[in-house]
Amino acid sequence: MTSHAPYRDLARELGSIGTVRRELARDLPYDCPPAPAVLLTLLGRHGELRMTRLADLLGVDVSVTSRHVAYAVEHGWVDRRPDPLDGRVRLLRLTGSGERLLAETHRRVSETLAHHLGDWPAEDVGRLTELLARLRASFGDRGCRTASRGAGHAPYRTAAHD
Amino acid sequence: MTSHAPYRDLARELGSIGTVRRELARDLPYDCPPAPAVLLTLLGRHGELRMTRLADLLGVDVSVTSRHVAYAVEHGWVDRRPDPLDGRVRLLRLTGSGERLLAETHRRVSETLAHHLGDWPAEDVGRLTELLARLRASFGDRGCRTASRGAGHAPYRTAAHD
DNA sequence: TATTGTTATACTCTATAACTATA
DNA sequence: TATAGTTATAGAGTATAACAATA
What we know:
DNA-binding, 3-stranded antiparallel sheet, homodimer, mainly alpha, globular
């Protein structure tokens, strides 16, 4: 008789983690919202990427990625060029300016984390990081993705008091 | 010489966890968006709460909480009544309908987690849950909150190609 | 025809500020 | 005056659908 309570508790914590993400977002430079910042991080980690691959790593639709990339290109953080081998593909990589912004972002975010988690044993930080990576990997392999396409939600409006 | 790389890696994983949250959100009933669902979870866990306390648990502004609560009340999931001891305060609790929706939500979300994390050792699930709770607690104590008020970000628009 | 990427649109979530009501 | 909560508004993030360009 395996209880589902552990999964319920995990879901609860995942639902509450937004607070931490928003707190970290406050550290970002004025003209760099969270989504572009994550994008820069991935380019810094993986080097040159194409749009579809980047969207896959971000876990969002290509259309969304396209918008964020356009923003980053306009700000001079990302270089976007056509793939010489396939005219449809666009290759993305950090510019020097993008690398500097990324380094500065890392510095600020690390500082905030160090401030809040200063009393954490180093191994707990590592364990949490590793478990989060594993969690994402366990959800990573698509397959149940296409099945639930177009589900969406009802319009979310609050009626006036009348 | 303590390296900041572990914090950078943790920040990276936190930035990528949105994928999992969105995947879980797909399980919610059509007329119950994620935010109201989290709200029901907290009322199910803590029982009757006032607005400010609920907003604190959610980690969002009271104005946001007010909107979500109004939505839940309109759908008959939450009962909202004035505190007999203080006319300004509003007390919130689940209705029978809200409890049923919550149970159904838990069932679906647990099912999805069981599907994706089926091969995880139970103790890893528990460890991740516990570390996430601790992470939130470490960020929970306000104080650096007021200091960074009104920071915000630049308008986030992509210029047309002209 | 199939694939890659872009753009338009609609919806959710959030914070800020201005407001009402009660203490 | 101070506190609890509501509402209006604007910005950020996302998915869907329709589209253009290339394979």
